[in-house]
Amino acid sequence: MNKNWPLWEVFIRSKAGLNHKHVGSLHAADADMAIQNARDVYTRRNEGVSIWVVESTNIAASDPADSDQMYEPAKDKVYRHPTFYNLPDELKHM
Amino acid sequence: MDTALLEQHFNEKIDQDIRIEPKDWMPDHYRKTLIRQISQHAHSEIVGMLPEANWITRAPSLRRKAAALAKVQDEAGHGLYLYSACETLGVDRDDLFADLHSGKAKYSSIFNYPTLTWADMGAIGWLVDGAAIMNQVPLCRASYGPYARAMVRVCKEESFHQRQGYEIMLTLCNGSDEQKKMAQDALNRWWWPSLMMFGPTDKDSKHTEQSMRWRIKRFTNDELRQKFVDVTVPQAELLGLTVPDKDLKWNEERGHYDFGEIDWKEFFNVISGNGPCNKQRIEARKSAWDNGAWVREAANAHAEKKAKRKAA
Amino acid sequence: MQDQNKFNYIIQQADNCLILGQRLAELCGHGPVLEQDIATTNISLDLIGQARLFYQYAAELQEEGKTEDDLAYLRDAWDFKNVLLVEQPNGDFGKTIFRQFLYDTFSCYFYEELMKSSDERLASIAAKSHKETLYHMKWSGDWVIRLGDGTEESHNRIQQSVNELWSYKDEIISVNAVDQEAEKAGYGVSLELIKEKRNEKIKAVLEEATLTTPEGDYAHKGGKEGTHSEHLGFILADLQFLQRAYPGNEW
């Protein structure tokens, strides 16, 4: 019954106003412990103000083999970017 | 896609310095090489805690004690980051531990040397961490994403380690005769093992060529060793210490220091288990792990019960 | 020295912090799992940090030009005023945890009161330390529950540590002459007040951990007066070795 503690992914908000960002992973028996461990392992140098943990097996990820169909189609949709539109230089506040 | 095409695509990414990520296709041999290298690196971090932990309780001031604790703790953290990077390749940390405990896995041979005096804490920080940083900085650009990211974190945290080591040496060298003697003695014992940390010479290194090709490694063992000697010798002079190598000499023509022949017999002896502390180091790791089994089981059992109670 | 009693009062807590911090430091590199190795080292670092703040203040009050290190490294066992609890050996992880929990349930409420000290310096050290010990108490309490509720083996092991350490739990809230005078003067705290909160917390955690409260309320004492268990001599031999072997040097 000597089984590995499950793996958790750790996300940390480095300061108020910023997104939580993935910083790494660790092992813990449950969510409470995972948060404590994340605090002890990943915020020793003041790196965070908030922690999220997610058990790694609960993360659904896209398949790199599908990269072409997933991400290529967005590449030529230039009209989604503001620079696509030609406007006179005199125009202000836009 | 057939394997040849996948491999071609993989090689293109390597050539363009595009990072390989965990779910990307990769050659089996690349995966195995990474697992070997990253786990060895992780093992080195946690076995490396032991020689220094040895002196934490005896640190000669509270300031030094706090610094030593923080440093050795960082090494636990670095081991953890690296094991995590390794786990993205589909291995379990517990299995990696099992390989370490059985003697199957290797770790840096330097940690099989004993720490005999307080000056060893200085010498390890200065020389061993210095050599490690030299090895590690290029790894921040390693082709495997999780490894490179772990190394970025490691290098950022390590920057204080070498400084605290050098500060210990500096204080000793400015101190009493006995303290100076302690510092010189530590340099005498750690100098050659530190040079060995860069691994066998290029002509004897069986992994270097492939690892360079895959950009897991960016410089050869000999290049890094030379760089280490070049920066460390002036640091020893600043301390007023003598590097224990009668062949050490500045070579104007090469623009590098020439240095003596490393005792490779000793190196291979230590690697194959005959270092002064190999058995003690593994025994210490194994007993920590074995004595912790009931704790880990208890935490699992409690987590399961708690989940059940919540569901009920 | 302006205030001998204040000095003594500070030393009691400084010594508690240092000796427990030192005990935990012994474990660095030997934890049951990497994540917990890091956690105990964090606690050790917090405790040594607290010890330093107290020693620095005590050294100033002493007005003899001494430093934190003189107080930590150059006093003998009879000068140390820590309670017997903190010098008890680490034992297995369960014993380390329960010793920690007994200490945390004191220090957390102690600092909560000391934050209101009439002495500003003490109040500010307490405020900083209180935040740290709140986390320690959560951590050690969670582990008591985990081990008590976990497996049959873990339950039996930690129950045994509870039984072993039970007679060391009350010295830390027993009032001596130094405490009395400190409270009267306004810079010290009421240990009576702490006792209640602490006992409730211990009771609640033991209950959740399905552990049995031992019978009997005998309390080993002596540490606060400088009469220690045999363990302290060895702790100091380790801690003070270099300062004693090479007197008068800078490190």
From TrEMBL, chain A:
InterPro entries: PaaB (IPR009359), PaaB_sf (IPR038693)
Gene3D superfamilies in UniProt: Phenylacetic acid degradation B (3.10.20.520)
Pfam families from the UniProt entry: PaaB
Origin superkingdom: Bacteria
NCBIfam families assigned: PA_CoA_Oxy2 (TIGR02157)
Protein name from the UniProt record: Phenylacetate-CoA oxygenase subunit PaaB
Lineage: Bacteria, Pseudomonadati, Bacteroidota, Cytophagia, Cytophagales
Automatic annotation (TrEMBL), chain B:
InterPro entries referenced in this protein's UniProt entry, alphabetically: Aromatic_CoA_ox/epox, Ferritin-like, Ferritin-like_SF, PaaA, PaaA_PaaC
Gene Ontology molecular-function annotations: phenylacetyl-CoA 1,2-epoxidase activity
SUPFAM superfamilies according to UniProt: Ferritin-like
One Pfam family from the record: PaaA_PaaC
UniProt record, GO biological process: phenylacetate catabolic process
Entry GO terms, CC: cytosol
Superkingdom as given in the UniProt entry: Bacteria
Name this protein carries in UniProt: AAA family ATPase
Automatic annotation (TrEMBL), chain C:
SUPFAM superfamilies from the UniProt entry: Ferritin-like (SSF47240)
Domain of life: Bacteria
An individual GO BP term: phenylacetate catabolic process
InterPro entries: Aromatic_CoA_ox/epox (IPR052703), Ferritin-like (IPR012347), Ferritin-like_SF (IPR009078), PaaA_PaaC (IPR007814), PaaC (IPR011882)
Gene Ontology terms: cellular component: cytosol
Pfam families associated with the record: PaaA_PaaC
Stretches of the chain forming a coiled coil according to its record: none
NCBIfam families linked: PA_CoA_Oxy3
PANTHER family named among the record's database cross-references: 1,2-PHENYLACETYL-COA EPOXIDASE, SUBUNIT C, PHENYLACETIC ACID DEGRADATION PROTEIN PAA
Official protein name in the record: Phenylacetic acid degradation protein
Natural source organism: Roseivirga spongicola
